[in-house]
Each structure stands twice: as structure tokens, then as C-alpha cells.
Design brief:
By secondary structure, this protein is α/β, with parallel strands linked by helices. The protein has two domains: 236 residues, Aspartate Aminotransferase, domain 2; 102 residues, Aspartate Aminotransferase, domain 1 (Alpha-Beta Complex). It contains nine helices and 14 strands. A seven-stranded mixed β-sheet has the order 2-10-9-8-5-3-4, with helices on both faces. Helix 4 links the parallel strand 3 and strand 4. Helix 1 packs across helix 6 and helix 2 crosses helix 6. The chain is globular and about 65 Å long.
Length: 357
């Protein structure tokens, strides 16, 4: 069978070790004789998985004791509402760096006063805005650290005079993060930490309960803290895979080790994009994401796009088509994407160049 190299933006490639453990659990979960997709979330065996998963999050990201770790329904899109409902009392500011940041702002505007403190929409979100001032009269500043569609990333922890909230859906666990600088970190799991079906949230609990409005029960983060992420039946399958994925990450050296690998993968692919006359990157070089590498055919070679797509597909590359809103190509090289796959894509680009000389 032809080797497949998976660059899909999400749901994305997962570690084979996590997949293998999940297959075993689908047959028999921890010797119970019950498959994991049918296990009661009130059993001691399942509660053990929840405890272990929270412990791994805390260990891998050095999460302080005054933060809670939650596994939530609804994905990051529901997270937009969690944020506004629990933190927006008077007004909030958003850094608009892409589609998902814009959608987060839209949801906040439906709850109260919210505005974009800066935006990169003028250049199709191809860079991260800089030089903006953070006012001290807002409830929080919201950022989206990695922009999957446009291939930009805020790869550092912003110093903010107000509570900082970050959607880290697509770069969580890919690099070290100083959690203590954030009021809340949240995102969908389906990039680096598991399959689709569950979202994560890391919340500084003493910042909750400050808004004056009524918060619907399921949108109140305190509900999920009190219920230990099991106020309603949790997505046991997705959380089980998440736990196995984090165990794999720990086994290879944790976040620091994977960050080194991720930088090597990104440098390899960006190096070829910059060298190869047929291709050009679309994100500002200083803001390039190490998770989502976006590029297009270089000027004068635009008519080769479909041909290269077919050429790459024939050689086992899947998921490199750019988002429908921007076109071109996108290679998502999340944690579990092996450097061998990145090298295979680079070799494919070089081979195509030779054919077109």
C-alpha cells in the first residue's frame, strides 16, 4: 500500500501509539469487558482516566495550582461564548488576526461591548499586528495564538496589564507556555491533543464569578469546575484518546522536546518554499506558524497549481489544499506529523521543480 503523508488541518494526524491503545480500549476498557465507547463515566475506571488526563495537562504545561483544567463540549466555537459569558462585564478587546478571531469577536459583541484593538485584515491576515496599546479599562484581551487558515502565529506570551485570554486550538502543547500570564486558555482538541469531540480550557478560577449578568448553567465555567467536567455525560471516547495522546507526548520528552522537533519540521519546509522558484510563502516571515505552513505558486507559475496538487497526491500527500477562502496550499505539521512526512513533501516539491525546468 502506498505510504500516505497526512497534512490535514483537522481532525488531524494522531500518534500511532495513541491509536493502537484506543483500538485495544475499543475492544476492552481496562479489563472491564466493556468497550470504552460504552463505559459509564461514573465508574472508578473512567474517573481514573479523567484524573490522569488532568494530571498530564498540569505536568506538561506546568499549570499552577490555582488553575482548573476542564474538558468541555462544543469545541472552540462554543468557547467563544464561554469566554464572553464568564469574563465580559463592561467591555473587552480582541486582536483580530483571522477568521476564528473575528468569529470570537462576533460572539462577544452579542453579549456586550467588544471591539478589535488591532487587525491584520488589510493584508488578508498575513501578519500579526504590532505596536498596539492595551488599555487598562477592559475586562480582558482576547488573542488567537495560531491562525490555521493564514499560517501566522503569536509564538510568545504577551505581557498584558489586563486578563489575557487565548484560543490556542491549533498550537497548544506545541511549545512551552507561561500559563500564569493568562486568565484562560482554551481550544478544540483536534489539532495536537486528541480527536474532534472535546474542547479544553485552563482557567484561573479566582477570576470567575465577577460578571453581573445571569450565566446559563451550561455556559458557566463554575458548573464544569464543580462537576469535574462531568456535569453532563462527557465525550469519553475523545477524552480517552486525548489522554493517550498526552501520554505519548510525555514519553518523547514533553512540550520542550516536541517544540524542538516542530521547529525543525517548519524550518525544513519553509526553507524549501523560500528556495524553490515555483513556490512562495503567504505569511510574513517574522510571524510564520510552525503548525500551519501556507504557500502558493509563485508569480508566473499560477497555472501549475492544479498540476502540482495532482502530482503531490499521486505521491501520497493528502490534506495540502489551502482553505477554500484563500486557496493555494497548506501543510499542517502538528505534533504527531513526523519529520519524514515533511521531508517527503519537500522532495515532492523538488521533483516537481525539476520536471518544470
Amino acid at each position: 500500500m502506498k505510504k500516505v503523508h497526512n497534512f490535514t488541518a483537522g481532525p488531524c494526524i494522531l500518534p500511532q501509539e495513541a491509536i493502537d491503545k484506543t483500538i485495544e480500549a475499543l475492544k476492552d476498557f481496562k479489563g472491564t469487558g466493556v468497550p470504552v465507547i460504552s463505559i459509564s463515566h461514573r465508574t472508578k475506571e473512567w474517573e481514573g482516566v479523567m484524573d490522569e488526563c488532568r494530571s498530564l495537562w498540569r505536568e506538561l504545561l506546568n499549570i499552577p495550582d490555582d488553575y482548573e483544567i476542564l474538558f468541555l463540549p462544543g469545541g472552540a466555537s462554543m468557547g467563544f461564548l464561554y469566554v464572553a459569558m464568564n469574563f465580559l462585564n463592561t467591555k473587552a478587546a480582541y486582536l483580530e488576526t483571522g477568521v476564528w478571531a473575528k468569529k470570537a469577536l462576533k460572539e462577544a459583541k452579542g453579549i456586550g461591548e467588544a471591539y478589535a484593538i488591532a487587525s491584520s485584515a488589510d493584508k488578508t491576515y498575513s501578519y500579526i499586528p504590532k505596536g498596539y496599546e492595551i488599555p487598562d479599562d477592559i475586562d480582558y484581551l482576547h488573542i488567537t495564538t495560531n491562525n490555521t487558515i493564514y499560517g501566522t502565529e503569536i509564538a510568545y506570551d504577551i505581557d498584558s496589564p489586563v486578563p489575557l485570554i487565548a484560543d490556542m486550538s491549533s498550537d497548544i502543547m506545541s511549545r512551552p507556555v507561561d500559563v500564569s500570564k493568562y486568565a484562560m486558555i482554551y481550544g478544540g482538541a483536534q489539532k495536537n491533543v486528541g480527536p474532534a469531540g472535546v474542547a479544553f480550557a485552563i482557567v484561573k478560577k479566582d477570576l470567575l464569578g465577577k460578571v453581573s449578568r445571569y450565566i446559563p448553567t451550561m455556559l458557566d465555567l463554575r458548573t464544569h469546575i464543580d462537576g469535574k467536567s462531568m456535569f453532563n455525560t462527557p465525550p469519553v471516547f475523545a477524552i480517552f484518546v486525548m489522554n493517550e495522546t498526552l501520554k505519548w507526548l510525555k514519553s518523547i520528552g514533553g512540550v520542550e522536546a516536541i517544540n524542538k522537533i516542530n521547529k525543525e519540521k517548519a524550518a525544513l519546509l519553509y526553507g524549501e518554499i523560500d528556495r524553490n522558484p515555483l513556490f512562495v510563502g503567504t505569511a510574513a516571515k517574522e510571524d510564520r506558524s510552525i503548525m500551519n505552513v501556507c504557500f502558493v505558486m509563485a508569480p508566473g507559475y499560477e497555472d501549475l497549481q492544479d498540476e502540482f496538487m495532482a502530482f503531490a497526491k499521486e505521491r501520497g500527500m493528502i490534506g495540502i489544499k489551502g482553505h477554500r477562502s484563500v486557496g493555494g496550499f497548506r501543510a499542517s505539521i502538528y505534533n504527531a506529523c513526523p519529520i519524514e512526512s515533511v521531508q517527503a513533501l519537500v522532495d515532492c516539491m523538488r521533483e516537481f521543480e525539476q520536471l518544470k525546468k
